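Ticket #4471: structure export looks truncated?
Reporter: QA, pipeline team
Priority: medium

Steps to reproduce: submit the single chain below to the structure queue and open the exported record.
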Amino acid sequence: MNKVEKYNVPGPRYTSYPTVPYWDENTFTVDAWKRTIRSDLDKANNSISLYIHLPFCESLCTFCACNKRITKRHDVERPYIEAIIKEFDLYLSTLTVIPKVKELHLGGGTPTFFSAGNLEMLIGEILSRTEESSQKDFSFEGHPNNTTYEHLKTLYDLGFRRVSFGIQDYNPKVQMAIHRVQSFDRVKRVTEIAREIGYTSVGHDLIFGLPHQKVADIENTIALTSSVMPDRIAFYSYAHVPWMKGNGQRGFKEEDLPAARSKREQYEIGKKKLEEAGYFELGMDHFALPADTLYKAYQQGKMHRNFMGYTTTKTNKLIGLGVSAISDSWYGFAQNEKKLEDYYEKLNSGQLPVFRGHILSDKDLVIRQHILNLMCDLKTDWKNNELYIPEIPDILLNLMEMQEDDLLAIDATSIQVKPAGRAFIRNICMAFDLRLKEQRPERQLFSKTI
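Actual output as written to the record:
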């Protein structure tokens, strides 16, 4: 059995630990959550990150498993913005200091569904309630087909310097299958506009393993992408999770998807082509040019990972605003209501719109740090006793086969992921996931690791 077949099992992507299906919702309370979000915040340490989920899209992309609301009615924008501001005010009332927004990201859905004027109102209201940070990192996700000069200029003037465009693939057959049709000329133009305005980091998101996708499609997509040289590239594995309620991953047949070995070949070819073009692989799924801040953060050992993906800055408080958004206080997680109507209902009654969460135990915090180290730095150690737990010997025993397969190196106090092990980083992290070991899911919860 080859390595792809051996390790291609369902596994988490570890944007959090514990992963959402293993949160202890029975003991979680909103009051306990509020205490964790207030902890460690004072006048000298008042930096926070904000994630704002903007769920509306005019059409459904069938590769997407995000929480979204499909509509062509733009009168939904103002009421939703007012709800976001109301939610932020509820958080501000629980904090003991006025926060400083160090990191802000607009995700979705399609953030550029909203007009430039409405985005200006939203961000203006948020920033008017906070202190200005001298080291802010503001970013947003844009759809190439509806991101305008006005969007880019308005957000730039508000402090945004990074934008990422969802591309996926340039083959028309693949684009039709995933319902995401956009021309290279349009992508090239919106990339050029962003740079002309002054954005310092323009990213393109690509996906391998899509329906009807071949190695030749990957080569063509990366050749076109390399011709405009975005500063960052996210090269994601398509996560096929059609059992998740509400996502649109049923617009094609299972047999339209490439087999695991073919999918892995797509990645290896893509990685080779990106490296030939001058990109460096960082962590999992991400590539950047040497001048980009993400590469510099990686080189300095400062790259961080949270629900927004890989970041160059770290705050221990991430407040997620909007329907389905997830917040992270380092000591706890909280997720907002997933249905827009439920989200509005809680806000209208003066409550934080949280419907579930998890308060981390001491052991959770140690495991979380190990997984974060592996995801960001491709290594972890327990030389410091604070990162040692009694289960370490069992964890190492479970990793021995991967060491024999030359995927990682283990010594008495550390683990180092080897180049061949990058493809299996999720599998390596699973060895540390004690909650997953204690309670194997009876049904499939996660996409496969390859």
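Status: closed, not a bug. The export was complete when the record was re-opened. Leaving a note from the reviewer for reference: Residues 77-94 form the longest helix (18 residues).
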